[in-house]
Amino acid sequence: MLHYHTIPVTAFQQNCSLLWCDATAQAAVIDPGGDLPAIEAEAERRGLRLRQIWLTHAHIDHAGGAGELARRLGLPIVGPHEGDQFWIDALPQQAAMFGFAPAEPFAPTRWLHDGDTVQIGQETLAVRHCPGHTPGHVVFHAPQIDRAFVGDVLFAGSIGRTDFPQGDHQQLIDSITQRLWPMGDGTVFIPGHGPESSFGRERRSNPYVGGT
């Protein structure tokens, strides 16, 4: 069985998620933007062995702690799509601009593309490339538990910003309607910020994409 636990990190209250395979206690950490001691303490408390870092995109509040965590624990960094290379290159500038601790540079061990899969322990998740908020944004879909980890593509009652460099509003809407909605109305998503919701609820009531 696949399990997850969400830990809000950084001043931006970004939803970092621990995701683990119950059979093996192997865990991935999705979007370790910062507050690494809290993430590691939670993993230890649950008896989990961190094995991978998965990134939805490379904004500072999602990727700021990835380089340090990978270096200290010898973990591979998986994702995002290479469209976010320029955001990775700019992590030091992002950290300074938004008042974060200095971010260590890193090179992803593996870039992700639409249709790829990732695996932790005995559990496999599907990868969808969902550009718009950033050009290299990806989403992790776990159909076995009806969950999707969507980063900053979609929120409860809102959608991701597209006013950052290389953001694209229409591309974001297309990502939501063409890549997320087919996962099913019953799928609950874990956004990059704020509470969980379901795709069905957002299809009905989200003012930005409701009715699409």
Polypeptide structure, described:
The protein has 212 residues and is of the alpha+beta class. The protein has a single domain (2-205), classed as 4-Layer Sandwich (Metallo-beta-lactamase, Chain A), CATH 3.60.15. 25% of the residues lie in helices and 28% in strands. It is built from seven helices and 13 strands. Strands 6-7-8-9-12-13 form a six-stranded mixed beta sheet. Strand 7 and strand 8 (138-142) form a beta hairpin. The termini are far apart.
Query: In which order are the strands of the major sheet placed?
Result: 6-7-8-9-12-13
The radius of gyration is 16 Å
Look at the structure and give the CATH class: Alpha Beta
Structural class: alpha+beta
Overall outline:
globular
Number of discrete domains: 1
Work out the strand percent: 25-35%
